[in-house]
Every structure is written in structure tokens, then in C-alpha cells.
């Protein structure tokens, strides 16, 4: 009895921890103004994060490539080029550190 309670508490805290990371990443995306152009589900000025995730699913270079776009804008990367508009580099956006770019790339890939 005691063991299963402890186990339940452990499972709950692990689940909370994972959900916490996803929430933190979404908050980061808002802070970095990603959501001004992107939406998770809907295409607008920029492709939706769901569409991007579906394209990159299973590709080994996905994380590194998305990190580069997130830090340097879409002109710095080979593509795909989704829209007529380009994603600007950091001269026109809040700075994103390498660690933040990694978090954001992983989060985008799980949408
Ligand atoms: C000013 C508008 C704008 C902002 C702000 C912006 N993006 Fe983008 N983003 C775009 C556009 C437009 C594209 C499509 C570019 C293209 O087709 O070449 C894009 C493309 C992308 C891609 C796709 C890369 C690929 O190769 O498939 C990712 C990932 C991405 N953005 C993530 C982010 C994240 C994370 C942020 C916040 C740090 C962000 N974007 C902020 C406009 C924006």
C-alpha cells in the first residue's frame, strides 16, 4: 500500500515535470515573440509549428537545422522555404541563446 502510494506520487511528479517543460517552452516562445508570426496549428504569415514538425519528423538533422533557423533566420538555412516571407534574423527579433534555441527546436518538433 505504502509502496504503491509512493509510486503514484513518483509517476505524478514525473508527469508534472514533463508538462512543466512543455509549458515553459511555450512561454519562452511567447517571450521571444515567436507567436507573433507563428501559431501552433494555423498557418499565417509563418508556417504552423505542427506543419513544421510533420515535415521534419524522423530526420536526423531536424534539431540542428531548426536551431539554426531559430537563431539566424530562414535565409541562413537551406530550407524548406515555406512562405513568401522569410523569418528574420536576430537583428529584428529578441536574442535567442543556443540553449533556448535547443529548447524551442525540441518543442516545435513535438507539436
Ligand atoms: C517576423 C515573423 C517571425 C518571427 C518573429 C519568428 N518566425 Fe519563425 N518563421 C517565419 C517565417 C515567415 C518562416 C518561413 C520562412 C521560409 O519559408 O523561408 C519561419 C520559419 C520557421 C521555422 C521553420 C524552419 C524550417 O526549416 O522548416 C521554425 C522552426 C521557426 N520559424 C521557429 C521560430 C521560433 C522558435 C521563433 C521565435 C524565436 C520564430 N520562428 C520567430 C516568421 C517568423
Can you put this structure into words, describing what you see?
The chain is mostly helical and 111 residues long. It has one domain: Cytochrome c-like domain (Cytochrome Bc1 Complex, Chain D, domain 2, Orthogonal Bundle), CATH 1.10.760. It is built from 4 helices and no strands. The protein has helices at residues 2-31, 49-56, 62-72, 98-109. The chain starts with a helix and ends with a helix. It binds heme C. Residues 29, 32-34, 36-38, 45-47, 52, 65-66, 69-70, 74, 77, 79-83, 85-88, 93, 96, 104, 108 line the site of heme C. Residues 20-111 form the Cytochrome c domain. GO terms for molecular function: electron transfer activity; heme binding; iron ion binding. Pfam families: Cytochrom_C.
Low-confidence stretches: none
- Overall mean pLDDT stands at 87
Q: Quaternary status of these chains?
A: single chain
Number-wise, the strands total 0
Q: Structurally, how many domains make up the residues?
A: 1
Strand content: under 5%
CATH class value: Mainly Alpha
Spatial separation of the terminal alpha carbons: 38 Å
SS-derived structural category = mainly alpha
Helix content: 40-55%
GO molecular function: electron transfer activity; heme binding; iron ion binding
Binding site for heme c: 34, 38, 87
Domain Cytochrome c: 20-111
Pfam family, one: Cytochrom_C
